[in-house]
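Final report, closing paragraph on structural work. Over the funding period we assembled a curated collection of sequence-structure pairs, and we close with a single example.
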Amino acid sequence: MRLSEFAGKEIIDFDNGERMGIIGDSDLEINDTSGEITSIILPGGSFFGFGKKKEDVVIPWKSILKIGPEMIIVDRSGARQVHRR
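Its predicted structure, as stored:
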């Protein structure tokens, strides 16, 4: 799959159907040697740049259950939260 096909898809949590974000708004963690995507990093954000920034959510590639034409279904139980600066 090309990155251009991947961009714009919604990320949905399998357990509760919650919309977690969009691939265009997230970062991808890529293995330096193989070029494979290892995880998706969803930014935590804050309310219009004000207030405390929420922690980012890192979803490992192995937690992706299904990639469809418009969305990506993930198992959030494998995700972890990190604080980036």
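The longest strand covers residues 37-42. The beta strands are 10-13, 19-22, 27-30, 37-42, 56-60, 64-67, 71-74, 80-82. We thank the funder for supporting this effort.
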